[in-house]
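ARCHIVE CARD
Drawer: 12
Card no.: 0347
Subject: one protein chain, sequence and derived structure
Cross-reference: see card 0346
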Amino acid sequence: MAYLASRPWGIARSALLWHAPDVRAFVFPALVLCGSAPGCLACVYLVSQSQAIHVGPTFRVKVDDHGGRAVRGLPLAVKSDTANRKAVTDEDGFAAFHDLSPGLYSLSAEQDVGGQTGKVLEVQSDGPGDVTVPMAWPTTTPVVVRSLKGILHVPNYVPGQPGPELPLGLLVGASGQKVAAVHTNSAGDFDFGITAPGIYFLNIGPFTLHRDGNPIGGRIAVSVEPDAPADQFELELAPTDCGLSYIDLTPCPPAELHIGELRGRVTGPVGHSIPDAEILLVDPSGMVERLSSDRSGEFSSKQDLAGSYDLLVRRFGFQTYRGRVFVAPELPPSAALDIQLGDARSCGSARVQ
């Protein structure tokens, strides 16, 4: 089975993994969201027959959100090459399907992130008749905030420098009704002014990056909850081979560092050196320094620096590190930065040593 996995960027880090296929049968290729990767908004994978859920001609589906709450009023579809059955979940999150012909089917919600297959079913004429298929919705874990506002950074953004104003549309989760449309400002800020609890889908773009001219866009699931840890979210967008991806910067606020000069080493979550990491130093006037780590993960500026700067250290496949750096030449020049980039489960960190 070919699929995208892992989730250092909220995405699969674009790592395409190949496993020997099950030659017995394959379900038709389906556009799917990588369930473990909130950023992969349109990747393709094949599901073998051996991985399908076996059901009888009549079965039901139980849909819960990622907090374990029943999802009501959600339209579901069960499709094959020759059939398309629909049902809507009831007050308790159940939807029933009856008298399906034997064969392979895809089960999905009509409203979700991308056009993915949520489940693959094999209907058997003598299959069990009391099966309840569990389904989490949305397919990807939503971003959780108290209000529908935040900051969206375009790929390769530089702090303090203006970016494109992105078109945004807002859909109500289960119904898919479009309720609002705004644009971000040049700093990426937006605010729909909505705090009503529920699942929403944020449609981004399409927008064009001047680097390649190709329009990109995608959809992000957002859960508004009154007791969420953050009032708003901050996401860094990135185009990948499987569509638009993002990394959630919200749980990783910038740190403060005091150094005598800009030099150090970049490593990953398990301590391995990261070559070709981008190190950006920015002040209100613009870019001050742009460096790249070498094969050992090391970097060093040749400039005589003094003052305070925004520091970004990023490498595709890892959580971007952000910090506020205070450079004082009187500090010991021998001290170096040890910067560890994070993954989807951890923020990055830095220390002076």
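Annotation on reverse: The longest strand covers residues 198-208. The radius of gyration is 23 Å.
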